[in-house]
TrEMBL record:
<dbReference type="Pfam" id="PF04061">
    <property type="entry name" value="ORMDL"/>
</dbReference>
<dbReference type="InterPro" id="IPR007203">
    <property type="entry name" value="ORMDL"/>
</dbReference>
<protein>
    <recommendedName>
        <fullName>Protein ORM1</fullName>
    </recommendedName>
</protein>
<keyword id="KW-0812">Transmembrane</keyword>
<dbReference type="GO" id="GO:0005789">
    <property type="term" value="C:endoplasmic reticulum membrane"/>
</dbReference>
<keyword id="KW-1133">Transmembrane helix</keyword>
<keyword id="KW-0472">Membrane</keyword>
């Protein structure tokens, strides 16, 4: 059947043929194994581009006030104080059991820790020219070095809190699963293969 409208280049195509520069896959294409190749994946992982030389230079010019407080006196103590205050707050709620109190304490600390250390990117100060805009706080602590005392402490706090909450919920399977998933959501982003290292 002749076509009445021709492309500007005066090329014609058969009904079953695809143009040479088509971005669409031919569904009849087969790989060596005889199976059709997948065109895309449902889950795609975003990878941050590597830091440029300018960004690394800007990061080294002035100390990062957003992350340096984690090495200051009392920075470790505040985590224990926050956990104790949360436990007292949930104990005061009428009708709250010890199991629910420990689970709520664990969940609240884990959500707050995740938001603070892994969700928010950049820094609230404008004195460094955006050098840390692509980094979350965990990646900014100790200039991205892994296994520093501060990072070891911040990794151990959720694990110890999970163990305490598991013990005081009397190893109930429902509370265990809730506490375990909350702990995993905070511990996995802290591991070296997930967080971006600056060094």
């Amino acid at each position: 059947m002749p076509s009445t409208c021709l492309p500007a280049s005066s090329q014609t195509y058969d009904a079953g043929a695809k143009p040479a520069s088509s971005r669409f896959l031919d569904m009849t294409d087969r790989s060596a194994g005889g199976r059709r190749r997948r065109s895309s994946s449902i889950l795609q992982v975003y990878h941050e581009p590597p830091e440029t030389l300018e960004q690394m230079s800007d990061q080294a010019v002035i100390p990062n006030m957003n992350a340096n407080w984690t090495n200051a006196k009392g920075a470790w103590t505040i985590h224990i104080v926050i956990i104790a205050c949360l436990k007292i707050l949930y104990d005061v709620i009428p009708g709250s059991s010890q199991e629910a109190s420990w689970t709520l304490t664990n969940m609240t600390y884990m959500v707050g820790s995740y938001i603070m250390f892994h969700y928010v990117r950049g820094i609230p100060f404008d004195f460094n020219g955006g050098a840390f805009d692509n980094l979350n706080m965990w990646e900014q602590i100790d200039n991205g070095a892994q296994y520093t005392p501060t990072k070891k402490f911040l990794l151990s706090v959720p694990i110890v809190l999970f163990l305490l909450s598991t013990h005081y919920t009397h190893y109930d399977s429902t509370y265990f699963v809730i506490n375990f998933l909350a702990t995993l959501a905070v511990v996995i982003p802290k591991l070296p293969f997930v967080s971006k290292s600056l060094t």
